[in-house]
């Protein structure tokens, strides 16, 4: 106890008996025990309070981190649903999301990309078809 050995405690007890006498010694020992018990309880409650504060600090830090994360997510949702900003981008075409990917560029090789000519000539009917039509008319 307090880094004292048995002999040191015995010497203190003998001195206490000499100064206090046998009448006051028991009540003094009870008071000393109460003092040490109160001191021990106070130190324990301080230790518990300190540990709760440390735990509260970590919980506060964690709560602030969650709050920051939620604010970032909220800002992302707001920017994604900002119709005026999206309309401004569409009208000014600030981004390249609407690129034509070269579909309307002129081809480099003119010989391979010439359009085919379309002719609109009327074909003559074959004589076999004409005979079948005449037979159908006669019937």
Keywords:
139 residues; mainly alpha; 3 helices; 0% strand; rod-shaped
Helix-strand category: mainly alpha
Count, helices: 3
Main β-sheet: number of strands, strand sense, barrel status? none
Shape: rod-shaped
Give the mean pLDDT.
76
Strand content: under 5%
How much is the radius of gyration in Å? 52 Å
What portion of residues is helical? Answer: 55-70%
What is the CA–CA distance across the termini? Answer: 136 Å
Chain oligomer state: single chain
Give start-end ranges of low-pLDDT stretches.
none
Short description, anyone?
With 139 residues, the chain is mainly α. 70% of the residues lie in helices and 0% in strands.
Could you please describe the fold and organization of this structure?
- The chain contains three helices and no strands.
- The mean pLDDT is 76.
- The longest helix has 75 residues, at 6-80.
- The termini are far apart.
- The protein has 139 residues and is an all-alpha fold.
- It is 70% helix and 0% strand.
Q: How would the blueprint of this fold be written?
A:
Blueprint: H1 6-80, H2 83-92, H3 127-138
